[in-house]
Amino acid sequence: MAGVDRPANLLPRHGRPERMEPKPEIVELNAHELESLLDQIAAQLGEPMVRPLRLLLASYLTLMRMIESKTASIRRLRRLLFGAKTERTSQVVGNGETTDRSPDRLREAPNPGAGEQAQGESKDASSGGSSRPRRRPGHGRIPAEAYTGCQQVLVHHGSLHPGDSCPDCREGTLYRQNAWGQLVRLFGQPPIGGTRYQLERLRCGLCGKPYTAEPPEDAGPAKYDPTVGSTIGVLRYGLGVPWKRIEYMQRCAGIPLPASMQWEIVRDAIGYGLQDAYDQLAWIAAQGDLVYNDDTNMRVLELGGRIKSQQPLRDDAPERRGVFTTSILSEADGRPPVVLFFTGAHHAGENLRKVLLRRNQGLPPPMQMCDALARNIPGELKTLLGNCLTHARRNFVDVYDAFPDEVQYVLLQLKHVYRADSLARLFGLSPETRLELHQRRSGPVMAKLHQWLKERLDERQVEPNSSLGKAIRYMLKHWEKLTLFLRVPGAPLDSNAVERALKLAIRHRRNSLFYKTVRGAAVGDIYMSLISTCYLAQVDPFDYLTELQRQARQVKENPADWMPWNYRRQKAASPPMATAKA
Questions:
Q1: HEC states along 458-521?
Q2: 201-212 pLDDT per residue, tens
Q3: Residue 179, C-beta contacts closer than 8 angstroms, at least 6 positions apart
Q4: Nearest CA to 269 among 441, 54, 3, 527?
Q5: How far is CA 55 from CA 41, 66, 69, in A?
Q6: What element of type H or E holds 329?
Q7: pLDDT at position 580, please?
């Protein structure tokens, strides 16, 4: 930390002396003296030259007062300096419906009476006369049928049976209803549990030969059940819980599980079906109709050591110094999306090229959605490229404070486009019908916006090198790729799907900071790919990883039958098998 002195004889752990940072000089300034100096400068150079300095001084004084105040939190200061994280139009420009200067409102409601009905419901709610029946205490929004992971126990009536006479009227006959009563009871437990068997030992008093009781059959041949690797894998790579936190939690629960042992368990589980399932997912992703790709920075200590020692990370690109985690999301009709992760010194485009090289030759080029960075392009392989509209929109959001009127106009135009897309999702429109909807509703809005953007630059209403000018030039430069959804059925508006998938790697990086080795990063990629695909397929990743290990032989022979969306059929038909892990 700057400004903190350290004794010269104090050495860090690695034994080498640290370079001492120069101690900053503290200068006491008086606001009134600065104002008088600014007045003198204004008398010589004019007020327009001094105005930016006055604004800077006022901002500095405001920030210092908030820092000195004990009520100012870091979150509040960050919101003040950088604004809110959300990019929703209402949060950026406020309620701009009354100032919308778009050509048409384009508010074709599928249900004409929906607005009146919503107004009536809001009036009833405000007056306290809501028509909704009140739930009984203890009955929340989640129905009992949603607890599919709970063990089901059938409880019969203690004194009555079907066919008995009614104890109330004495004349009717009781019959069993199809709908049973529901009661849910939950309990907690540590992530990893276990059983300790105490085997009786006998010894002959004459010859001294010992005899030990045989363990029961349910003890199994291995110390670590496949469920242990699945639990650790989901906690580590699905939720981002570091090894040490899992170790501490298990030690407190009386079941020691060192971090080194956790790593060995998840590493060894890769050879029991997980690698085969990952390879099959990669092949399926290559056959997709639509692929998204993006990457984020990642730290791998082994690669970082090569960078420090001036060793090349790649033989084919010795100058490459970046380390990334790439996320590739593939969609196709008839199956849930597939997510793949790759960590190393390759960009998103290079990893996508490696995947698409496995694509069948007879298939047409896939549609690709990404941001406009050149490193997202898969080399010489052809794709139907579309760029993310959200990235172009974000360029305007970032300059709202400097150009509120212009940014408000752009955001309100794009709001109509996203509203049309949300209607298409709401009513489950086919790609062709969705394309017709966008061409009818979004096409005129985008044409009007394109004309408006060109006029700003052609008529010199905006400085081309200003922040707003750069946002306009970015949008015009990539206009054809940003409007792919107006020409191709099924083309998405943005790359938000892969951005959400990439959060799994970002969460891991924030909680654990780095991978230690390249092998560790590869293991993490396999787990994250399988877990993310399970999330999108609405499948329990814990159960899926467990079944892959238990049915490792069947998975290796026919991995296509053991994908997250179809493995349950194979699970029901296959007998339970015990893995050979020791």
A1: HCCCCCCCCHHHHHHHHHHHCHHHHCHHHCCCCCCCCCHHHHHHHHHHHHHHHHHCCECCHHHH
A2: 999 988 989 999
A3: none
A4: 527
A5: 15, 17, 21
A6: strand 324-332
A7: 43
Q: Side chain identity at 84, as an amino acid letter?
A: A
Write the CA distances from 14 to 17, 263, 310, 363, integer angstroms: 9, 26, 20, 56
Q: What's the 3-state SS for 391-428?
A: HHHHHHHCCCCCCHHHHHHHHHHHHHHHHHHHHHHHCC
**Per-residue model confidence as pLDDT tens digits over 316-370:** 788 888 899 999 999 998 899 999 999 999 999 999 999 999 999 999 999 999 9
Please, what sign has the CA dihedral across residues 249, 251, 255, 256?
A: positive
Kind of pairing, strands 201-203 and 324-332? unpaired
* C-alpha closest to that of 579 among 79, 289, 221, 180: 221
- CA nearest to 545, candidates 560, 567, 525, 524: 567
Cα distance between residue 526 and residue 512, in whole Å:
17
Residue pair 242/512 in contact by the 8 Å Cβ criterion: yes
Q: What are the counts of helices (DSSP H) followed by strands (DSSP E) for the chain?
A: 22, 7
Instruction: Read off the tokens for 301.
Output: 């200590």
386: three-class secondary structure by DSSP: strand
Q: What's the Cα-to-Cα distance from 556 to each of 259, 264, 269, rounded to whole Å?
A: 29, 21, 14
Q: State the Cα–Cα distance between residues 351 and 522, nearest whole angstrom.
A: 13
**Cβ(295)–Cβ(371) below 8 Å:** no
User: Which residues, including other chains, have CB under 8 Å from residue 521's CB and lie 6 or more apart?
Assistant: 298, 300, 325, 343, 344, 515
How distant is the alpha carbon of residue 336 from its chain centre? 17
Alpha-carbon distance 521 to 271, whole Å? 16
Q: 275-286 vs 348-356: helix axis angle to the nearest 10?
A: 90
